[in-house]
Amino acid sequence: MTRTSNTCSVCQKELGTSFCTGCGVYFCTKDFKNHRKTLFSEMDAVIEHRNELQEKIHKAVQHADPYNPLFEQIDQWQRTMIEKICRVSEHCREQVSQLLNSKRVKLTNDFKRFSQDLIHLKQTENYVEPDITRLKYLMHQFNHELKQLLKPVSIELHTEPSDRIIWSQLLYVEEKSTYAGINQRQQHEREDDRAGAMSPRKQPSDCYSSPIRSLIYISTEDLAF
Ligand SMILES: [Zn+2]
Ligand SMILES: [Zn+2]
């Protein structure tokens, strides 16, 4: 009977009939009841706190923020990018149009001027042989330009292919604060799991089968909570 040598750790007088595996000390029946009672109160406080926390978590989770300024910034970025793409495309269209039409416009204008000169000469009858030669030469030139104009214009388009752009790097977000809270909590949960796999308080597993252990269960059941 090894237990007879243990006295209650609270009153130090009575025989320690119950052993708390959490504290690792013996209690007399009365003090053990009080000891458990204190623990139950602490558990009740934990549950009360948990319920308060649930309320806060519920409110925080429900309160999703659709008006976060980040959304506005993303919208603004999107608008700016689209505007810039539109602007550069429009500029390129103008360039193509100019390349295609500039020679036509020039030929039309030059031919108009030439025709006016010709009409003037015809009306005034103020021309001599070299004028006829010059007019013939100019018409030959116009004919040549016209042939050039009818050939297809060779214009090369240079683009940055969209699949070469790393779109995910053009716009992305990153959490700035180093929030260790979740990691710390998960660490504690894991430790608890490991402890639970062995025994509730990292006591040797034979505690379950020891008579002292069964005494604790009887005592706690007797408490009228
Ligand atoms: Zn006692
Ligand atoms: Zn204890």
From TrEMBL:
Domain of life: Eukaryota
Residue stretches of biased makeup (Basic and acidic residues): 186-195
Region annotation (Disordered) ranges: 182-207
This protein's name: B box-type domain-containing protein
Species per Swiss-Prot/TrEMBL record: Rotaria magnacalcarata
